[in-house]
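Good morning C.,

I know you're traveling, so I'll keep this short. The sequence:
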Amino acid sequence: MAQKQGLADLTDLSGSGDNVLVKAQVTCEQDLNSHRPYQKGLLWDKSMNYGDIRAFVVYDPDVRLEPGKVYMLNGKDHYYDPRDEVQLMLHDGAYVKELYDTNS
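The tokens, ready to paste straight into the viewer:
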């Protein structure tokens, strides 16, 4: 697994397995009430057209993302074959920081 340098746009994710850093808004989420993954939802950033989304999944029991909030997220650019879906996967110890100044 490689580490992509700098901030990646959600449109750049391809399921490469690389470790990526993104800044994105959570558009919706679902708490799965299961042991893993704990949460699943959709992300959006300025690289995307209105209505486009990118899925995320959370495998860290201490991380919960809230709709409408913007976060800096460090996770894995993951391809989920059963759904033919590119996802941002947040594992145990994932870096997640809520941003209050979303213009930075």
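Safe travels,
E.
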